[in-house]
C-alpha cells in the first residue's frame, strides 16, 4: 500500500518539496505519495490531526508553522502517557520541520541545519571547522541551523541581526554548546572578515539590501543565501566583492533527504535532484 506524506505551509503553491520527494521515491523505489497542503493560518493543528486520522505516515512543515509544529509535539511529549518527542536539534531550535506519525506517537525533528551543513561541506566542498562564520538573521531559519553549524567546530561565529535582542537570545541558548567564539551584533557594528557568510534573513526577494561593509569577505569566502532560485541583492553584492556564491536550493534538497531518511531509512542521492531543479540566475 502507498504510504502517504505531505508538506504543510501557508503559502504552499511555490513548494518544490513534492517534486523533490517524488524524485527521491523514484530513485529509491519507495511506494509513497507526497502532496502540498495549504493549512489556514489558524488551522495547523487541525490539519495535522486530519492527516493522522487519514493514516499519513508523516509530514514536512514549512513557513509559518515550524514553531507550532514544535509546540504541538512538546504538548504530546508532556501528555500522560507520553505521545510525542522532539529530537535535540528541534528542541534547541524550538522549531520542527519534519513530523513522523506512528500509531499513537509523533516524532518531531528539525533537518534544516543538517541540510545546510551538508550542502556547504559536500556540495560546495567548504570545511566549517576552524572557520570564521557570519550568520545573518535570528529568526526561525537561523535558530534552526545554529546548533548544526556549531557542531562543526568553527573558530568564531557571529550572529548579526537587525534586532539585537533576538541575536542575544540565540547566543544565550547556544553559548554552552561549543568552544567557538560566539558573538552578536547589529549590521552597523560588524567588523572583521568571514570565511562563510550565511544570509538567513527573509529580505531575499525584496529590493531591501542589508547594509554590509565590503570588508566582511575573507579571501575565498563563500556567501550563502538560504533563499533560492534568483540573484538576491546579497548574492549580487557578494559576487561583486569576489566571494563564491550559493543559493539555498541545495539546503532545501539536503534537508528533504534527511527527512526522507528519517521516514524511509534510505538516503537518496541528492546531486541529481539538485541538478534537476537548478534554475540559472
Ligand atoms: P523569520 O521571519 O523567522 O526571520 C526573519 C529574519 O529576517 C529575522 O532575523 C529578521 O530580523 C530579518 N529581517 C526581516 N526583514 C529585515 C530587514 N528589512 N532588514 C534586516 N533584517 C530583516 O524567517 P525565517 O527565519 O523562517 O526564514 C528566513 C529565510 O530563510 C526565508 O527566506 C526562507 O525562505 C529561508 N529558508 C530557506 C530554507 C532552505 O531550505 N533553503 C529553509 C528555511 C528557511 P528581525 O529579527 O530584526 O526582525
Average pLDDT rating: 96
Shape: globular
The CATH C-level name of the largest domain is Alpha Beta
Bound molecules: NADPH dihydro-nicotinamide-adenine-dinucleotide phosphate
Oligomer class: single chain
CATH architecture of the largest domain: 3-Layer(aba) Sandwich
The secondary structure category is alpha/beta
- The H-and-E topology, N to C, reads as EHEHEHEHEEHEHEHEEEHEHH
- Quick one: how many beta strands? 12
- The strands making up the biggest β-sheet line up spatially as 2-1-3-5-6-4
Would you mind describing this structure in some detail?
This protein is of the alpha/beta class. It folds into two domains: 3-110 and 251-277, 3-Layer(aba) Sandwich (Rossmann fold); 113-247, Rossmann fold (3-Layer(aba) Sandwich), CATH 3.40.50. Helix content is 38%, strand content 22%. The protein has ten helices and twelve strands. The strands form two sheets. The chain has a six-stranded mixed sheet, sandwiched between helices. Helix 1 packs across helix 9 (249-264), helix 5 (112-123) crosses helix 6 and helix 5 (112-123) crosses helix 9. The radius of gyration is 19 Å and the shape is globular. Bound molecules: NADPH dihydro-nicotinamide-adenine-dinucleotide phosphate. NADPH dihydro-nicotinamide-adenine-dinucleotide phosphate (NDP) binds at residues 63, 112, 115, 137-142, 161-163, 166, 200-204, 208, 210, 226-228, 248, 251-252, 255.
Describe, in short, the structure shown.
The chain is an alpha/beta fold and 281 residues long. It has helices spanning 17-28, 44-53, 66-78, 88-93, 112-123, 140-151, 164-174, 233-240, 249-264, 271-277, and strands at residues 3-9, 32-38, 58-61, 84-86, 98-101, 106-109, 132-136, 156-160, 181-185, 194-199, 217-225, 244-246. It has two domains: 3-110 and 251-277, 3-Layer(aba) Sandwich (Rossmann fold), CATH 3.40.50.10860; 113-247, Rossmann fold.
Amino acid at each position: 500500500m502507498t504510504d502517504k506524506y505531505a508538506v504543510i505551509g501557508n503559502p504552499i503553491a511555490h513548494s518544490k518539496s513534492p517534486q523533490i520527494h517524488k524524485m527521491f521515491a523514484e530513485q529509491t523505489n519507495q511506494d509513497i505519495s507526497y502532496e502540498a497542503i495549504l493549512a489556514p493560518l489558524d488551522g495547523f493543528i487541525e490539519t495535522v490531526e486530519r492527516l493522522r486520522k487519514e493514516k499519513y505516515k508523516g509530514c514536512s512543515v514549512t513557513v509559518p508553522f515550524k514553531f507550532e509544529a514544535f509546540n504541538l509535539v512538546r504538548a504530546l511529549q508532556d501528555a500522560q502517557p507520553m505521545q510525542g518527542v522532539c529530537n535535540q536539534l528541534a528542541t534547541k531550535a524550538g522549531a520542527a520541520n519534519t513530523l513522523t506519525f506512528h500509531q499513537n506517537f509523533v516524532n518531531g525533528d528539525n533537518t534544516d541545519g543538517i541540510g545546510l551543513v551538508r550542502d556547504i561541506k559536500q556540495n560546495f566542498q567548504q570545511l566549517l571547522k576552524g572557520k570564521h562564520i557570519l550568520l545573518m538573521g535570528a529568526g526561525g531559519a537561523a535558530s534552526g541551523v545554529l546548533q548544526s553549524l556549531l557542531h562543526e567546530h568553527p573558530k568564531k561565529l557571529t550572529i548579526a541581526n537587525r534586532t539585537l535582542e533576538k541575536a542575544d537570545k540565540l547566543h544565550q541558548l547556544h553559548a554552552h554548546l561549543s568552544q567557538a567564539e560566539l558573538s552578536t551584533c547589529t549590521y552597523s557594528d560588524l567588523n572583521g572578515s568571514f570565511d562563510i557568510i550565511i544570509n538567513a534573513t527573509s529580505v531575499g526577494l525584496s529590493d531591501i539590501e542589508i547594509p554590509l561593509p565590503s570588508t566582511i569577505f575573507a579571501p575565498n569566502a563563500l556567501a550563502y543565501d538560504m533563499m533560492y532560485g534568483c540573484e538576491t541583492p546579497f548574492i549580487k553584492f557578494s559576487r561583486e566583492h569576489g566571494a563564491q556564491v550559493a543559493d539555498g536550493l541545495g539546503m532545501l534538497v539536503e534537508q528533504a533527504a534527511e527527512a526522507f531518511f528519517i521516514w524511509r531509512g534510505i538516503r537518496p542521492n541528492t546531486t541529481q535532484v539538485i541538478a534537476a531543479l537548478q534554475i540559472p540566475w
